[in-house]
Structure formats: structure tokens, C-alpha cells
Amino acid sequence: MTVALLVGLGLLVGFLLGLLGAGGSILAVPALVYLVGLAPREAIPLALAVVAISATAATVPRLRTGEIRYPLVAVFAITGAIGAVASTALGARLSSAVTMLGFAVLLLVAGSRLLRPQTDTGTACRIPSTGKVNWRRCMSRAVPVGLGVGVLTGLFGVGGGFLIVPALVVALGLDSVSAIATSVAIVAINSASALFAHAGTSGLDTGSVIAFAVPAAVAAALAGRLRLDAARTQRWFAYLLLVTAVAVTAATAIPLLR
């Protein structure tokens, strides 16, 4: 039963990550805790391992398309690694209840953010008159976002794509296709960095990683080739996040009140 659950979760995580450049990882930890029965300290490294593998698989089909903005990947990767290493030490000191309640807040923020309309794009990375990139202005916005995403990755085991994609579109002016492609590359590197930081805090079960990661990688690679109605898919995913936030809050808070 546990293997079947891990395979199913892997397919869901990989599909969402490959399609939206975000999403699957934020569901992985609650699912591993409440459906599979792992403790948060076990679930977070496992989620990071799977997200790193599936995001890499989702990146591969896009390497030759010209959609990935590599300078932004580098900035997010460097700042994200710093944030992930710093927050991992803090996360190791938090109780399971505090970690999961924090995760519920993160789910609420992510769901609400994804439901917010994004009709305009920013111009921080583009000079309209020339079409060239203003890297000084672009990087000044990318660095703090990268640090914030890294902190969330190390603390909660999420890839942070739900923040990266809107930041790339709204703040930095990338089109949605480039934002998704760039996001999955950033998520792959950030998750690997956070997993390295977690290496000394808990061990990984190889069988669980394989059962979770292989279907996630396959689903991510296949979904990376799809071009579905992103707005509708994102909206339904946001509803799922909000429902999950309520469920995580109830499952965590009710035992504390007894």
C-alpha cells in the first residue's frame, strides 16, 4: 500500500511540476506525513530528493528550446542555496506541529497567490525601446526573491516554483513559457542544494526514493512537453492547495487541543 501511494504521489508531483513549473512539491510533504505516515523530518528530505529528480527531468526537454534564461537560473541558484543552508539549521530545531502549521500557512499563501489575476507583466528585465536586458535592475529584484525561495526550500522541502513563476512574470517581465522553463531549472538546483544541507540531519530510504522519484521523473518529462490551458489548471491547483491547508491545520491542531 505504501509503495502504491508513493508511486501515485510521484506521478502527481511530477505532472504538476512539469506542467506548471511549480506545485507538486508543495503537496509532497503533507501527503508524505498524513498519507504515508512519515514524520516531517523524514518527509522533507524525501520530498526534496524527489523534487530535485523530477525537476531535472522536466528541465531536460527544455534545454534546446531556448526557453530557459540561464543568467536568472544562476542568480536564483546561488541565492537559493544560501537561503536553503541557513534555514535548514532552523528547521531542525522546530517541532513537528510548528513545522506543519507553518506549512499550512504556506499553502494558504500559495493558493491565494495563484488565484490572483496576473494580467500584466513587469519590465525589470527588459528595456522596451531596445529589447535588451537591463541586468542591473533585473538582478536587484531577483536576488531577494531567490533568497526567500531558498529559505522556504530548506525549511519546508518545497521547490518554491509557486513563488518563482509569478516573480519571473510579474516582477521581471518574462513570458509565461520562459518563466515555467526557467522555474523548473531553478527548482532542480534549489532542491538539490537543500537536500545536501539536510544530508546530515536524516537518512533517506533508497526504496522510497525510487518508488517516489521514478514515476515523478517520468511524469515531469512528459508533462514538460504539454501545452494545456495553464490558467485553468493553475486555478484548480490553487483550490487544491487551499483545501489541503485546511486539512493540514485541522490534522495538526486537533491533537494539540485534546
TrEMBL record:
The chain crosses the membrane at residues 44-63, 70-90, 96-115, 145-171, 204-224, 236-257. It is found in: Cell membrane; Membrane. It is a multi-pass membrane protein. Its main location: membrane. Keywords: Cell membrane, Membrane, Transmembrane, Transmembrane helix. Pfam families: TauE (PF01925). Belongs to the 4-toluene sulfonate uptake permease (TSUP) (TC 2.A.102) family. PANTHER family: MEMBRANE TRANSPORTER PROTEIN MJ0441-RELATED (PTHR43701), MEMBRANE TRANSPORTER PROTEIN YJNA-RELATED (PTHR43701:SF2). This is Probable membrane transporter protein.
